[in-house]
Structures are given as C-alpha cells and as structure tokens.
Amino acid sequence: MTNPKGSFIWYELMTSDPDAAARFYGAVVGWTIATHADPAASGVDYRMIARSDGGNAGGVLGLSADMLAGGARPAWMGYLYTPDVDATIASITADGGAVHMLATDLPVGRIAMLSDPQGAAFYVMNPIPPAGMEDMDSDAFSPTEAQHVRWNELMTSDPEAAIAFYRKHFDWRQEGAFDMGEMGPYRFVQAGEVGIGAIMRLVPGAPASMWSYYIGVDDIDRAAAAVTANGGTTISEAMEIPGGEFAMNGRDPQGAAFGLVGPRHQAPFSPSPEGEGIARGERR
What we know:
- This is VOC domain-containing protein.
- It comes from Sphingopyxis flava.
- Pfam families: Glyoxalase.
- The chain has 6 helices and 16 strands.
- It folds into 2 domains: 8-127, 2,3-Dihydroxybiphenyl 1,2-Dioxygenase, domain 1 (Roll); 149-281, Roll (2,3-Dihydroxybiphenyl 1,2-Dioxygenase, domain 1), CATH 3.10.180.10.
- The termini are far apart.
- The chain has helices at 18-28, 65-69, 85-94, 159-170, 220-229, 276-281; strands spanning 8-15, 32-33, 46-50, 56-62, 75-81, 98-106, 109-115, 121-127, 149-156, 173-179, 185-191, 194-201, 210-216, 233-240, 246-251, 257-262.
- It is globular, with a radius of gyration of 18 Å.
- A hairpin with a 5-residue loop joins strand 10 (173-179) and strand 11 (185-191).
- An 8-stranded mixed β-sheet has the order 2-3-4-1-5-8-7-6. Strands 10-11-12-9-13-16-15-14 form an 8-stranded mixed β-sheet, covered by helices on one side.
- The chain has 284 residues and is α+β, with helices and mostly antiparallel strands.
- Helices cover 19% and strands 38% of the residues.
C-alpha cells in the first residue's frame, strides 16, 4: 500500500438493518450495498458498499443481537492506516488512549478499534492488498469525488491535545484554519500532502468527542430531499462552505450520524437499483 501513514483507507457503517441502509444510502448517495453478507466474512453480516465507478466506498457491518445487547449502536467508523498495528496500540495506550477491540487478524488485514485520549473512536488497520496489487492505493477517501468520503471532521473537548496526538501517532500535519468566532478555529489537518479534514472544539450540548464523515454527493439539495423522503433526519440544513460547495448533517433511519457535501445544481444522477424509484421522484 502506498497511502501515507495516517490516511483514512476504509469506512464502515455499523447498523441494525443492513437492508434498510442499502435502500437509504442508495437513494441519498447512489451507492449499491450488497443484498447478502460477504462469504469471506466468516459468519458476520458484512457487506461491501459499491460506487457507480466500480470501486468500493467501504463496508456495512450488521449489528447482531449480541452486539446490540453489549452496547453497540449504529454509527459510521473510519479506518486509519498504520504499517504496525501492535506498535500503534502500544504507543496510543501509553499516551492515554483506549482499546475497544483487541488487534485481530482478518483475511483483509490486521485491525483494532481504539479511541484517542478525549474519547473519539476509530479503527487502525494494516491491510493485506490482493495478490498482484501490492502497490495499490485505497481510494475510499477522496477530497473531490462524489460517492467517496470527502471530509473527516473531529469534534473534541481538547483540540490542541488532539492535534498533538494525531501528529505524533499518525504523522499528520496541521496547516491552516478557519475562524468560527466563539467556537474558535476550525483547524485543517493533512496526511502526507493531502488535506483530509479538520479538528474543532466540541459544540455545546454534544455528548462526547467524536469523528464525523462527510460523504460526497452530486447535488446537495437532491440528496437532502432524499434523506427525509427515505426516513432519515436532517440535523443541520445545507450551508455554504469555503470553495462554494455545501455541507449538511443528518441521521439515517437506524440512527447513524453522517455528513453530506457537494455542489448545488441539477446534475445527472444514476441511483442504485434499491433507491431508483424513490430517488427519481425526488428530483426537483
């Protein structure tokens, strides 16, 4: 893998209803989520998220009754690349982070779930590329393209400590900021030469430090209409962001929070089969 250390290389939706998630994100984003579990998932309900360009945007983990009883809830999670999962776990726990899932070997690589010292959770992963594709890049994240995650945003109780943490453990840089007045600076962060997102202070009333992931869409107004038409909830209305595009936040019908980002125009849209009729009816 040629992605720099600290890159977001995969995204995962944990949900109580993968079939309903397929219909919802098919209508809103245009993804096609498999109708059955991946046979390689060893009994776990894990499904791939396919983009219309043929690539994968991430995966969907169906939460079992035992997982839900143990406290798991619908949520989006990001995977950060590290070439040494065990060394990363050791260094993070030594600096006050926590382990939520021990390092595990899967056919696709070694993973673990951690949280930073302020409590924001994420996965770390050292992937195993397919044979003959050892030099492949992950393109689950793209700063510009629809149907990819385009922005990764950390709301945290201590932005300065979080910047130092991710700089130390994942080689991130922090260059540039946007002044949000009383909320303080919205600090941009980079992995290698790529701007991957931002770190900001926790907003009043937010329950805990957390990562939010903004999915690229072809048209923010069409996507926002599809959110509510398909049982989701709008948390914040679309607002213009630097560069002229628009971003909004919502929750899917199972309760997982997500962001959307994209232009405001009538662009051609090819929904996935699950959402075709609904999405066609939502065009303005």
